[in-house]
Amino acid sequence: MPFASAYGKLSDESLQRIPTAGADFDIHNGKLLAPILIPRVPGTPGSRAVQQHFVRFFQEQLPDWEIEWHNSSAKTPATGDELIPFANLIFRRDPPWAASGDVARLTLAAHYDTLYHPEGFIGATDSAAPCAMLMHVARSIDRALTDKWAAMQASGEAGSGLEEERGVQIMLLDGEEAWVKWSATDSLYGSRALAEAWEATPYEPLSTFSNPLGAISLFVLLDLLGARSPNVPSYFQTTHWAYQRMASLENRMRKLKLLSTQGTDSFLPESGKAMTQFARGFVEDDHVPFMARGVEILHVIPHPFPSVWHTMADTAGNLDIPTVDDWAKIVTAFTAEWMELDGLMPKIPAQHEIRESAKTEL
Ligand SMILES: [Zn+2]
């Protein structure tokens, strides 16, 4: 399988360069997280405000990322004959020379919608924090991707056909939640529509992949993250190797004292799980419509769920921000390793250098 092809480890020095989100994860005025901490029921003004937040962030700060809206609509058991709009947002970076049907994409996903009931539900772990984490991942690898691809073009390595073309995409999905009671038809509105649409959208003949679903090298789904002391199992035997990669990065970052939740247990403790220990059961979530079509899945969701799950207590104030920041760093490291950005991560400026540049900006 090409998706399992070997790739090099990130060096300690690259791990040290994985940036923290810092003040941007402040729950009151943090640039990434705070605007998401509002009710985001599909079709409501809150949902539209958060969509605009995502789009504006990429347009203004990450203009090299292609933005794709995927719109659908459906009736729900709570809203009668009214058609509710669902909008998935996909942000994508491919090597600039590559045809879109030839790029294998690491796909990082989270849902941004919130429950219809209870009214006023915030869903801080479900999944505002995971969305903010993915925004941080995108901005943290952006420069290194640009530099890597520019160097490949300069050396004539680009498009040689010797190596698989690698891209990355971030999916912020709508309509994950059930409106009345979880069922095959009352849940996963956005992801079901997207998987179906992509399966039916063929690439040009002679492309490496037949459609955008086939081009997903690994679908990494973050959900219910942001509460203290998460325990994330390895759910799938076929992607246990990817779980081990992420766990190894976490453990190395802990040893190097690069995480804020020092002294706590590993978030990803199941690297040593034996192949015979994998159960058939799994948590139903946005990966299901993709998995049903053969996409490989890494599901990053804790078991047990956070104690605040689907209650009015899933609020900003109940997030554990050091945990949110550590997840963002772990997933950034995983993405940087996958995209082979070792040696390309920009140096993090020291505190005094930050103060100096702030002065010159004034
Ligand atoms: Zn939920």
TrEMBL record:
Query: What is the protein name stated in its UniProt record?
Result: Peptide hydrolase
* This enzyme's EC code(s): 3.4.-.-
Give the UniProt family note. Answer: Belongs to the peptidase M28 family.
Question: Please, which domain of life does this record's source organism belong to?
Answer: Eukaryota
Which CDD domains does the annotation name? M28_QC_like
* A Pfam match: Peptidase_M28
Q: Does the keyword Acyltransferase apply?
A: yes
- Look up keyword Oxidoreductase and say if it applies: no
Q: Which UniProt keywords apply?
A: Acyltransferase, Hydrolase, Metal-binding, Protease, Transferase, Zinc
